[in-house]
């Protein structure tokens, strides 16, 4: 949530900030702003509501000889979407940008008499006013005092009027990474804004003060002790974070799934068996677990539900899947016999992170499935299984979802093996099939035109329903989330057999019902449910394996997926539901990659 960038060095800062904000825009996009040091006039601030493109226009006259500045793209938490509330905020000699939430901003306003200095409705401006009040020419002293007073999460980049060429930064929870290179020093919320300058970077340690200068970056703890940051190296380049000829990131990311899966699966299969030696995952933790607790949010949680389905049916180990924001406020029944699996693309989702902390507090070992290297969730977990989807820019998660499922499958297979539940030959067969899921996806992608045609039927509907049984119901949950989030069509997922208990009342003439029917053993059951909605006027789109053919009495359209065991058909279904959402949103002329009210990484509660 919110994108942050700061640069100081030899190059004109405006272009670096604007280009960086374009890369970071997926983190929040209701307004944007920059502040630069103009060597002639001092701090210049430009802000606009709306997209970075509008800010770019407004910032046309920013001096090219300004080489130090900060930029921000906002996802509003406190205060509406106005220019006044957009960052950077300036009070006295302090200008800053912020990602996170300052929980005690009201108390600080009263206690430090800051009301008169405030022009916006934001919690962020209170930090600027507080810092200005505390500042006596020593930035470290003021920052240290201020962060000791702040409650909540924050990533702050600060410039002081009398410290030209320097950017100070500090964070708690909210992510920030930094890098220094030939032309200067850069700091940002994530790698997409940094990678065109440097492949080496470090994760800003929490509660440390960072000083960016044109000649390098200093890191010190709050006691003033110098700290050597731990540099990491990224293994993808900027082209991965560009559209590469596709009209939208989402479509590109859907098509990238075969390679993303290959990168995630192949290195972890040794001699035909799943192997986590390189990941440092200790077999004993898998061998000794008695039950599994999966915690995550949104699509990542739905990937967890697919994992549950496999683990319970094949290993007979009980698995609970919990919404992280619910889990973190209850008293969960977990202990040292429980393995908690945390799933997160960004590795920064605040509710998931807090759930992880609670699980550890309850003595459960935590294994996370994370896409972003060095992210907070990865760093705080006992074990990490990195997915290798590469950067996912579209707000709607696609490739991250299927690689999460593949990681679950690898994990399930290893658990089965080390616990002696599955034989080597069974696991080897399973691995061979897992290695071919990329082909399943490629084959399903050939249905794109048919799916596009289906989307044209859905686009004008106010409501739509996904129905399924078993794993198809689990996939329906993800499908309806995807459709809602980017097409703004009210979509619900229903266990097909449950419709008659109330929801069927909502079915009337032409309501789209997308029935997913990959589960062979309940195929006839779901077809009966489909007939029930069809006879009440629904426009039925049936998703089945290629060998099934149903008449127009049963469905209006049929989408065929490769015939494979339902535990592998999830990969094909994922593509179908992603493309339905994508083409529906596109047909409605919506901003597919940046749907309203959303942001990619949810770092506030
Ligand atoms: O970064 P995370 O995987 O932790 O994010 C979790 C959810 O916010 C995310 O999957 C969200 O539901 C997607 N936008 C859905 O497409």
Provide an overview of this structure.
The strands form 5 sheets. This protein has an 8-stranded antiparallel sheet with strand order 3-2-4-1-10-9-11-14. Strands 5-6-7-8-12-13 form a 6-stranded antiparallel sheet. The protein is built from 19 helices and 26 strands. The model has no long low-confidence stretch (mean pLDDT about 95). Helix 4 (about 125-135) crosses helix 5 (about 140-150) and helix 7 packs parallel to helix 13. Helices cover about 35% and strands about 25% of the residues. It has about 600 residues and is an alpha/beta fold. The protein starts with a strand and ends in an 18-residue tail after the last helix. The chain binds 5-amino-5-deoxy-1-O-phosphono-D-mannitol. 5-amino-5-deoxy-1-O-phosphono-D-mannitol (M6R) binds near residues 300 and 485.
């Amino acid at each position: 949530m919110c994108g942050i960038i700061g640069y100081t060095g030899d190059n004109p800062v405006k272009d670096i900030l604007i280009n960086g904000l374009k890369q970071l825009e997926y983190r929040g996009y209701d307004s944007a702003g920059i502040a630069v040091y103009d060597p002639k006039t001092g701090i210049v601030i430009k802000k606009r509501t709306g997209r970075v493109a509008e800010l770019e226009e407004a910032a046309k006259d920013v001096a090219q000889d300004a080489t130090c500045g900060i930029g921000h793209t906002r996802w509003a938490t406190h205060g509406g979407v106005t220019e006044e509330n957009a960052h950077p905020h300036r009070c006295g000699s302090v200008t800053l940008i912020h990602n996170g939430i300052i929980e005690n901003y009201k108390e600080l306003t009263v206690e430090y008499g800051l009301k008169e200095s405030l022009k916006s409705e934001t919690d962020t401006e209170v930090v600027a006013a507080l810092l200005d009040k505390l500042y006596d020419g020593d930035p470290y002293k003021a920052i240290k005092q201020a962060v000791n007073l702040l409650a909540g999460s924050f990533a702050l980049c600060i410039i002081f009027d009398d410290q030209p060429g320097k950017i100070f930064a500090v964070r708690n929870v909210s992510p920030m990474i930094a890098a220094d290179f030939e032309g200067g020093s850069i700091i940002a919320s994530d790698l997409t804004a940094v990678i065109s300058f440097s492949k080496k970077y470090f994760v800003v340690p929490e509660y440390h003060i960072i000083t960016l200068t044109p000649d390098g970056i200093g890191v010190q703890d709050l006691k003033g002790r110098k700290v050597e940051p731990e540099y990491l190296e990224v293994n993808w380049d900027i082209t991965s974070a560009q559209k590469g000829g596709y009209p939208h990131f989402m479509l590109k990311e859907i098509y990238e799934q075969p390679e993303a899966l290959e990168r995630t699966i192949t290195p972890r299969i040794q001699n035909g068996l799943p192997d986590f030696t390189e990941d440092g995952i200790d077999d004993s933790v898998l061998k000794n677990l008695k039950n599994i607790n999966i915690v995550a949010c949104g699509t990542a949680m739905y990937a967890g539900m697919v994992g549950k389905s496999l683990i319970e049916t094949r290993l007979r180990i009980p698995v609970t899947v919990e919404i992280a924001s619910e889990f973190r406020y209850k008293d969960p029944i977990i202990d040292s016999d429980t393995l908690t699996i945390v799933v997160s693309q960004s590795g920064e989702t605040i509710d998931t992170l807090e759930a992880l902390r609670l699980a550890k507090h309850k003595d459960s070992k935590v294994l996370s499935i994370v896409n972003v290297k060095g992210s907070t969730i990865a760093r705080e977990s006992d074990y990490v299984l990195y997915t290798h989807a590469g950067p996912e820019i579209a707000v709607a998660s696609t490739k991250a979802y299927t690689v999460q499922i593949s990681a679950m499958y690898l994990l399930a297979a290893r658990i089965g093996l080390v616990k002696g539940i599955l034989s080597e030959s069974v696991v080897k067969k399973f691995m061979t099939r897992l290695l071919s899921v990329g082909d399943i996806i490629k084959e399903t992608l050939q249905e794109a035109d048919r799916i596009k045609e289906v989307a044209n039927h859905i686009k004008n509907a106010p409501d739509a329903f996904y129905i399924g049984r078993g794993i198809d119901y689990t996939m329906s949950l993800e499908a309806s989330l995807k459709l809602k989030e980017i097409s703004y069509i009210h979509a619900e997922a229903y266990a097909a057999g449950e419709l008659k208990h109330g929801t069927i009342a909502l079915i009337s003439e032409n309501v789209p019902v997308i029935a997913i029917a990959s589960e062979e053993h309940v195929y006839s059951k779901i077809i009966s449910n489909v007939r029930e909605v069809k006879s009440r006027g629904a426009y039925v789109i049936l998703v089945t394996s290629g060998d099934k053919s149903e008449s127009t009495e049963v469905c209006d359209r049929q989408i065929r997926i490769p015939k494979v065991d339902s535990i592998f058909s999830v990969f094909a279904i994922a593509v179908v539901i992603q493309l339905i959402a994508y083409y529906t949103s596109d047909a409605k002329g919506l901003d597919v990659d940046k749907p309203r009210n959303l942001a990619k990484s949810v770092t506030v509660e």
